Amino acid sequence: MNQEKSAPWQIYPRPQMRRESFINLNGQWEFSLCHPHYDQTITVPFCPECDLSGISQHPEDGQYFWYRRAFALPPFQGRVLLHIGAADQHLTCYVNDREAGTHSGGYENITLDITELVQAENVLEFRCLDDLRDQSQPYGKQTLNRGGMWYTPVSGIWQTVWLEIVPKNHIRKLHIENHGYGVTIAIEPAMGGRVSVPGLGQFPLVGGQVTIQPENPKLWSPEDPYLYDFTLETAEDRVESYFAIRCLESKEVDGIPRLCLNGKPYFFHGLLDQGYWPDGLFTPATPEAYAQDILAMKKLGFNTLRKHIKVEPEEFYYQCDKLGMLVFQDMVNNGQYKFLRDTALPTVGFQKRNDKNFHKDSQVRKTFLDAMTATVHQLKNHPCIVYWTIFNEGWGQFDSDRVYGKLRKLDSTRFIDSTSGWFRRKRTDVESLHIYFGPWSRLKPAKKPLVLSEFGGHTYGVEGHLFNPDKAYGYKTCKTLDDYQASVETLYRQRILPMIPKGLCGAIYTQVSDVEDEINGVLTYDRQVCKLEEETMQTLAQDLQIAIK
């Protein structure tokens, strides 16, 4: 089932748990900055700040803004679930003038059972509130005063809104976990059923779960991203999904600590990925844009994206799964940022601080931990995600050793970078450094696998493709496109390549694309120009992998 076929983002929004029932509510909604006077029209799923929404205005901080639309339902049996991909920061939902539920947090999926509130013809309303002055909620790179490495804020709905009709006794959650060279599939609530995997056979659910360990598994990697499709059936419900088999290990190889993929040392050759778009901010105009970015980076030889302080719609991770792109996933920071404490002093070398008393407010800490938990539950089924980053450059950081323990209980299968950049404590799986200005002597062998989790940031502004021609932000200015290409290649060959035999396991270059004033992208902000040569970068990528073997 589908409505409004001309509306944007018509793809099924939950690719790892697909059902036939799907009613898309994207498209034209009534919009109001002053309820109950709906005097504007907004295009969902685009935030009001962006051009694609038709509003291009940031709602005043601390003031409610409203969405409204009608929808019809066919005769049905079972339950009606309303899904909102994400809404920043606070949302209250009303169905036919009755409250259906509330949610706080700008990056998590929201699901509400509205069965008792619906009829044949319905009116759906959302009341939203976004207040960046309240830094208890995760906010990432959003700021009211855009500039440099801080970007235009995003408010309200920014992902697909949709309905599905499910059986009374339906699968609420699906868990897929890799372990060694097998996979465990489990459902909530636990009930009987079976999993059917083409080519492998049928497997009964016992206590709501099953472990599948093929005798000769086809392993997933960026070079060969093999996915096993499967169907899961219970007495009343049926969902389609997929899994991959891939093994992650941290171990010593020839006396050097290494991060290993499928039993072998692997060099994670990556880019910082902010996930911003000039016309849609958090949300690209079409979902195909994710695949286009991923394929553009693969053509240059990159195999990893560090999703930087943002949680994307699941379509992004699905495309990484399908196309073969590893993901280092950041948690989204909350808490107060201070330039001197968090950036200036660490950049010049003051990088050792005890973080137990950072951000002591109990509510700020609880909100971060709740958001971290939601992020892991939402994304952990995706095999492309191999690495979690908890804190970045001290932003919102507190008691990182304890937070590492909480994340490890949530996910025992992936690498964890507790403190990307600096303010490192004891509990982390990697030695994680940021080096933009040197000294490069800091990049040296360590007792743990060494990851350069940010570096580079060289800038070149392509005329005719600049967001703000009057301002530019980055870390090294190149005067021509040839200078830019040479500068990037030289950086890799002089600083990165020699360190791989000594223990460097991954390097994340800044960054995939320009973002607003920040012009250190491999692509321009509009994705129309690539600043690097494919052949040169492919040769470099091959040399990086050879160096780690």
How does this model look, in words?
With 549 residues, this protein is α/β, with parallel strands linked by helices. It folds into three domains: 23-166, Galactose-binding domain-like (Jelly Rolls); 173-243, Immunoglobulin-like, CATH 2.60.40; 265-548, TIM Barrel (Alpha-Beta Barrel). The chain contains seven helices and 32 strands. The protein is globular. The mean pLDDT is 95.
User: Which segments are poorly predicted (pLDDT under 50) over 5 or more consecutive residues?
Assistant: none
Overall residue-averaged pLDDT value: 95
Give the number of DSSP strands. Answer: 32
How much strand? 25-35%
Helix content estimate? 10-25%
CATH top level of the largest domain is: Alpha Beta
Task: Assign the CATH superfamily of the largest domain.
Answer: Glycosidases
Q: What's the CATH topology name of the largest domain?
A: TIM Barrel
Strands side by side in the biggest sheet? 27-26-25-24-23-32-29-28
Q: How many helical stretches?
A: 7
Major sheet: 8 strands, parallel
* Broad shape: globular
What would you say the CATH architecture of the largest domain is?
Alpha-Beta Barrel
Radius of gyration: 23 Å
Structural class of the secondary structure composition? alpha/beta
Tell me the span between the first and last alpha carbons. 51 Å
What is the count of distinct domains? Answer: 3
